[in-house]
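Per reviewer request, we include the raw input and output of the structure prediction for the construct analysed in the revised manuscript.
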Amino acid sequence: MSIWTELGPITHRVEYLDANGVRTRTLRAGDPEAQAVVFLHGTSGHLEAFARNIAAHAAYDLHAIDMLGHGYTGRPDRPYEIADYTGHLLDYLDAAGVERAHIVGESLGGWVGARTAIEHPERVISLQLLCAGGTVADPGVMERIRTSTRQAVTSDDIGLTRKRLRLLMADDRDATEELVEIRHAVYHQPGFVANVDNLLSLQDMERRRRNLLRPEHLARITRPTLIVWGRQNPFGDVPEAEAMHRAVPGSRLELLDECGHWPQHEQAARYNAISLAFLEGAAG
């Protein structure tokens, strides 16, 4: 199964929007008259992380974006903190004419989505946190992310990109060769190597700590919230998800077996069903 065959059943387009001066790559699909759903990927990721989810969600106005400094989106030369990512997301929503959206965030994307729901609840209809980051500062995990990403970006060896993607998955087969080639091409764009430390800046302990989502922050989330977690998540054990669930009022927690850090990809059929049921309830 290819990304193209995943997207083939529906009309879609990949385009670039000017989000307050940042050229932003976005995949658009679905019903432009429906409520918007915005998909946000993780650290060093790109919109293809949601290829297995787009067609299933086609009843909505869909936006999968490359976040600030990631994928093929513009790369301002500064270390990115969560305020930078949330600002870029809001600028994108303004550029796309989206007043309010369901936010689906994986890893870093969940961190950004949660902060947006806390500080700008008027722009958020509902929130999905897929193996979301931002609630802990684990030096071992941070070093694994930093080292594996920098190795893959600074070397032409596609095997290091393959290794970086497999780190995310419970089953190596989910790191398809198509995804490996896409990510290798992203990592080796002109200028990406020079920018890699900017997009890894939250792996610096001092910077991460000042951006953390603490329980008192999560308690301010008022929008319907779904937390989805893989039981084999290499970047956060189940107690981390359970703590998030306790902190976010009225949230729902789904734990997926045989799943690592990309539940929307590794367990796409199961995730899509859970997400669509949640969105239907939240949309009302």
